């Protein structure tokens, strides 16, 4: 059994995750910034796998157009977030409305393009991907129907996710810490056994008293 310090990393990540969740909840400017960065990263990481895996030219073209549009929209949200953080002023209400419809566009376009490629372009898929995209479409449609939807909704959602994620990391890290303490206890027990064995080795083997050696010097009366 070896010592593992993964529990410490999980606790640090839990603290960071919960801290970021609360920070975004109380600083709505960060919601724009984080959302924009997530969209940009997601768009960039999709490019190479899609180009390599899609065989039909029309599929590649449609997906590349989607990625470019998502990248631009993500850049807009990132810009708004950075400007708001630098100025210390919350974004105008028009940006809150823009935030809503940017999310709607990204969700609906992803679902529609996926379903179109499956139904009309014979793209093979899996059940879990199919139903997840149905869920994405439903989520985008639901956001349209929520009149006062804005970045605060996402702030609440991110806070809840960060709390649940942080709680799981703390719980999982606690199990790892328990294993670490058991390992530490086993080391101490081994040291005690080794120490006792050494002491026992130094003690006399027999219970009989050790006879004193006679002095060779002559007795003087």
From TrEMBL:
Keyword match Nucleus: no
Q: Which residues cross the membrane?
A: 7-26, 32-51, 63-82, 102-121, 128-147, 153-171
| Key word Membrane present | yes
Top-level taxon: Bacteria
> Residues annotated as region Disordered?
195-221
Its keywords, alphabetically, are: Membrane, Transmembrane, Transmembrane helix
What is this protein identified as? Integral membrane protein
Q: Which organism is it from?
A: Acholeplasma oculi
Which taxonomic lineage is given here? Bacteria, Bacillati, Mycoplasmatota, Mollicutes, Acholeplasmatales
């Amino acid at each position: 059994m070896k010592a593992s310090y993964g529990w410490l990393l999980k606790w640090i990540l839990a603290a960071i995750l919960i801290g970021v969740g609360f920070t975004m909840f109380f600083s709505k400017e960060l919601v724009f910034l984080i959302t924009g960065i997530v969209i940009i990263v997601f768009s960039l990481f999709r490019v190479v796998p899609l180009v390599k895996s899609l065989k039909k030219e029309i599929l590649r073209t449609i997906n590349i157009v989607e990625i470019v549009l998502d990248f631009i929209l993500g850049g807009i949200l990132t810009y708004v977030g950075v400007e708001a953080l630098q100025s210390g002023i919350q974004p105008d209400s028009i940006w809150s409305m823009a935030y809503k419809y940017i999310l709607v566009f990204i969700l609906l376009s992803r679902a529609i393009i996926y379903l179109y490629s499956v139904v009309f372009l014979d793209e093979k898929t899996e059940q879990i991907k199919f139903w997840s995209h149905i869920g994405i479409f439903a989520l985008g449609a639901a956001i349209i129907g929520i009149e006062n939807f804005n970045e605060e909704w996402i702030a609440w959602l991110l806070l809840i996710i960060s709390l649940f994620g942080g709680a799981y990391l703390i719980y999982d890290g606690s199990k790892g810490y328990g294993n670490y303490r058991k390992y530490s206890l086993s080391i101490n027990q081994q040291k005690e056994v080794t120490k006792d064995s050494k002491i026992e080795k130094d003690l006399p083997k027999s219970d009989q008293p050790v006879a004193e050696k006679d002095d060779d010097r002559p007795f003087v009366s």
